[in-house]
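Sample intake sheet
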Amino acid sequence: QVQLVESGGGLVQAGGSLRLSCAASGSMSSINAMGWYRQGPGNQRELVATISGGGRTNYADSAKGRFTISRDNLNNTVYLEMNSLKPEDTAVYYCRVTSAGRLYWGQGTQVTASS
């Protein structure tokens, strides 16, 4: 079983920055892909960014140029640096990890960018 603990969410003014962290722990083999997803009010959960075990990144168009995903393989942690936040970025952000062919989700952390 893998546990994911997210942190770093909060309330910022539009244009501000936040850094999300997600630490994986528990019984797991090597972690493959790691990523961040979000779900805004009344919306479906959507991809924000992913990073492969080899460090290849993929971003949603809405995140390109503003968000940066990175990972620390030694500590099984994935980060999301978010800059120039907009009110439309307001959502619950979820970490997702793939390990041994199974998907694991974090509990979510609220990000609110006020106008």
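Comment: The mean pLDDT is 95. Residues 49 and 69 are 7 Å apart (CA to CA).
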